[in-house]
Amino acid sequence: MANHLIPPGLKLARSMIISPEMNMLSEMVTPWDFKEEIDVGIIGVPFDFNRNFQGTGEGPNAIREAFLAFASRSHDFEVDFSDLKVRDIGDIRMHPTEVLTCHSNIREGLAELYQESPDFIPVVIGGNHAIAAPSIRAFREGNDYKRAGLIDFDAHNDLGDPSFSGPTAGTMFRQVIDAGYIEGRNAVQIGLHGSLAAVPQHEYALRKGVREIPAREVWRRGVDTVMEEAIAQASEDTDAIYVSFDIDAIEDASAPGTGVPAPGGMAPREAIEAVYMLGKHPKVKALDLVEVDPLKDLRNITSRMAIGLLAAFLVGLKERRLEHG
Fold this sequence. Notes:
18% strand; alpha/beta; Arginase, Chain A
């Protein structure tokens, strides 16, 4: 077992939806024995340090609990993905007070895990979006990819200068671009909306070649067109694509439980279709789902939205396996 990795923070009882005809995710996603060959490994990163009161550290367990209400067959796509081997690898251990120690644990733990078991697709569940920086570093350091692209779904571009505010949820993508883990010309941000934005961050994106696609552009041009362009940019001359999904990219009514919501955003159907397309693409090798805050959530709407995205990704992956092996 990799360093800094501990057992899953939540062990689920049997689903309340009892039907011998349904394969519930709570029974399909079982703890990994670190021996079985798997398709997808779920890793929790319960990190929630922030200046504001936040409960994103409880996000991984809230999402795990939502497994109880979902089965493996999708009505939307008419696909059953129950033959995919999806396992819960556990959580990265967090330090109660030291932010940099948490980031180091994430980077070291994930990189070692990928080096030991390189063949599965990691789904990293946060947690505050700041985890994306050490997660991307681990993704590059723990694999043999010569160059990687990035597709980020977010209300905000998170390209702030870390010299001002440190390694936060507002600076992580600038961190990995400046450090050379991602080239700006292979980075795309989708779903930007609201007015919590800064001119210097937009100018940085222009200088580095980062494509910014506001939610309004998704509405007007259509998600299929936008995603085809995003995948083309992220995959140009790259070996792999890392996908980061901040739940605040989705309009508030469908994702109220998040740290920094903004009016507008992508519709759930657009987000689900986008993640499905990414699941199908052979260069997509990692996904993170972040910023689910169960303390701000209402009737688990946001946790269930996250599972809807995960299920769409798994449907796409199932189709990828059928097409590409």
